[in-house]
Amino acid sequence: MIFSDFKLEGNLPIYIQIKDYLSSLINKGLLPNGSKLPSTRELSKILDVSRNSVIAAYDELKADGFLYSVNGKGTFVSSEKLITSSDWNIDWINLENEFSRTANELDIVKNEIPWSSDLISFKSISPDGDLFDMDEFKKSFMSRISVESHKLLNYGYAQGYKPLIDFLGDYMKKKGSFSKSKTTLVTNGFTEAFDLILSSFTKPGDMILCENPTHNTSIKIMRAHGINIQGIDIGKDGLDFDMLENILEKHGNSIKFAYLTPSYHNPTGSVMPPESRLKFYNLMKKYSIPIIEDGFNEELLYSSSHIFPLSSFDTSGNGVIYIGSFSKILFPGMRIGWIYADKKIINRLISVKRCRNIHTSFLDQGVLFDYLNSGKFEKYIKKIRKVYGEKFSVARKCVEKYIDNEYIWGDGGLHIFIKLKGIDARELLDRCYNKKVIFMPGDIFFTDNNGYDTLRLGLSRLSLEDIEKGIKIIGETIDEMNEENK
Amino acid sequence: MIFSDFKLEGNLPIYIQIKDYLSSLINKGLLPNGSKLPSTRELSKILDVSRNSVIAAYDELKADGFLYSVNGKGTFVSSEKLITSSDWNIDWINLENEFSRTANELDIVKNEIPWSSDLISFKSISPDGDLFDMDEFKKSFMSRISVESHKLLNYGYAQGYKPLIDFLGDYMKKKGSFSKSKTTLVTNGFTEAFDLILSSFTKPGDMILCENPTHNTSIKIMRAHGINIQGIDIGKDGLDFDMLENILEKHGNSIKFAYLTPSYHNPTGSVMPPESRLKFYNLMKKYSIPIIEDGFNEELLYSSSHIFPLSSFDTSGNGVIYIGSFSKILFPGMRIGWIYADKKIINRLISVKRCRNIHTSFLDQGVLFDYLNSGKFEKYIKKIRKVYGEKFSVARKCVEKYIDNEYIWGDGGLHIFIKLKGIDARELLDRCYNKKVIFMPGDIFFTDNNGYDTLRLGLSRLSLEDIEKGIKIIGETIDEMNEENK
């Protein structure tokens, strides 16, 4: 098509006409730098000239430096010396909007200490991949592909892969949360689930109630959406209900959502007791503030201790939107989470999801469904509960032994949260980094710029030896700082 | 944990005390309907009572209808008769924001004619899954899993899987678009790519220039973001540059982006000639309007005809954001696309992506990389170019033969777009539906409510026989309508 306007004219030798024609295409930018030309045989056919003329034209252009050949690969355009026109230079940062600015500012990955293999890093709470059962995973892939074949690789439905939706419905039933008027939307992990809800139901300036501290990613997403965040303190003994009731009296009618992480809360690791869950649910119901319940790490708890999510109080209501995710403990690289909520909500969210990314990978949904449905997940969860449980209890003992603390939060999970006695955790981090130990300073989890003397230790990817070694170093560093401050 | 506050008190028999305690938990909702109780042995341990007392308590509660047993599964709570409290009923639709409302209103899937197997459907332009080479796909999965193991299943980077990023960089080089100052972000298909860019760089009310007609999903996303869409007509001979220059003179300085689909444009199937591409690029540069180039279906064209994307003019500038996607022709169920743009842009988009869904599935990226890198894609593309090329030329001949048309747009691709002579395409659709033939009415692709007498025929999933049969029926129905209108 690009060579379709070539015409032989006048008395100039054909190879010169070809050369001039190609030169003009290169000059105009229609044959860009680095682009591959047809072979001499192909071009002679396209232009309807002899192959020898094309060879001669190519040779001339090579001599002029506008073409070069790579053995066995072909002939390419080299127009770098032509690029003299003033470059188009847009000041992109200046065009950025508030959403992007906030998402960038609060992106902790961008401000992280670079990882190196000699560090003991307590930063991560992502699962230990060595615990994944890869053979069973491969079997699930093969089994699902043999059932569905190319259907898993073509367009699917925004709501998700039907067998997975049904499985998650049953799964919510086991959590005591089944409701005839609710259904499931499969999402790209918790993050997308939370973002979709805010994208669909909030406006900048809306107020959301949440625990203080809370999951830093949730804070980031809320801030990016321009949400006015109202934190309720979590103390040593759990959520401060007095503070909550005061806030409700003051702002009750203008609060859009309550966002809560009742199980192995991030970062504190606290588990909200059943009575507090019910009390919280009833308070929100009284003020008609819908609850977004984050099922974070609930799987580490579930069936071992019989505490049910808040959504289990809502089986005949529509006030709780539950967000679940396996990716905190299983295959986070696949990014599968879900929302379980009133069908009217899901119906609206489906269109918003379709507007954002059509649907979540059907391949991943299919393979994960097979893995879950075959009972492999139950075996896996028993194994990891034991492994992570041991890490937590070792870590807790080490913290008690080595770290001069105000108190230690939490009942278990993939991390442990510590309040120090007035020690600046960021200064502590700088000092520990010199000793090859890093952790997450706690202030990023606070909604009100507090928590300068708190820190979170992620345990999931460390050996018991490194847990003890690292905590000992942190403790010694705190002792040094205390000594200096005397 | 939930049973930790049980205490034996007074003189009542132990099994009665257990029964009363469990009743109170069920009453409070702390043991929700359908939830599973511990086995009698487990509970006797937890409560520190004899197993016989627990058995007796369970039996009493069963007799009262609050528990039931399922053989081999356990004992479950049945509290349905307790649910008498007034339900929590939130009016969700009323809480919805403008973004969700628009995404729902413009969601064509929700207003679609239900599919049935006896229909000849020209609606879809998704690829024919029977053409996917499943054996090679499985090999790519196995090969990538053996290289990366559980790393593909754990958290990855927002920008994407490094080998895929590098592959796509080389791929853009082959398109003549390589720039030292540009890089790649992997996205969940075109839809996420476009949404991310608008989410980061636009505000409601911003003006975007695009072809009229254009891709209806793009119109939906722009409208959801509150964009003021300024269409430039595509006539039989391509983009109306006179109209474009008029608009630029009037609004040039207040236009935020130009959005363009130069190859096998959706819905018209036109391919913008190289000279028009350069002219368009230079015009946008003159007015400093950055271009979002949609590489839609370019793969069907690439290397067979040497037309380079607009981004190939921009190798020393930063004015073109290129969006690529394999999912129009290959494995759309995996949702993999990419953005190739200035590193400063990508750097900002990475944080926005991380705020939306952390990253695109690393499993899918890894498998797709292996498939692309092993040369299987090149073989596949040769095969499908032939298959889809034949479908297009058959369809074109059939349209010329059977359909009384004003003109037929397009040069190829997965679809063909037709302008009728004043026939209402929606009425035509209703009539054809009765004859078991459906297609996409063209008006959904227009930015200005025009196109009532246009339609798009998607060809990718139909046999040659059905293409002819269906087009013949459409043509006959048009003749009937013409007859009636005489």
Automatic annotation (TrEMBL), chains A, B:
Pfam families according to UniProt: Aminotran_1_2 (PF00155), GntR (PF00392)
Recorded GO MF terms: catalytic activity; DNA binding; DNA-binding transcription factor activity; pyridoxal phosphate binding
Keyword presence, Lyase: no
Residue ranges constituting the HTH gntR-type domain according to the UniProt record: 12-80
Coiled-coil ranges per UniProt: none
Superkingdom assignment: Bacteria
Keywords: DNA-binding, Pyridoxal phosphate, Transcription, Transcription regulation
InterPro entries reported for this sequence: Aminotransferase_I/II_large, HTH_trans_reg/aminotransferase, PyrdxlP-dep_Trfase, PyrdxlP-dep_Trfase_major, PyrdxlP-dep_Trfase_small, Tscrpt_reg_HTH_GntR, WH-like_DNA-bd_sf, WH_DNA-bd_sf
Record-stated family: In the C-terminal section; belongs to the class-I pyridoxal-phosphate-dependent aminotransferase family.
Protein name: Transcriptional regulator, GntR family
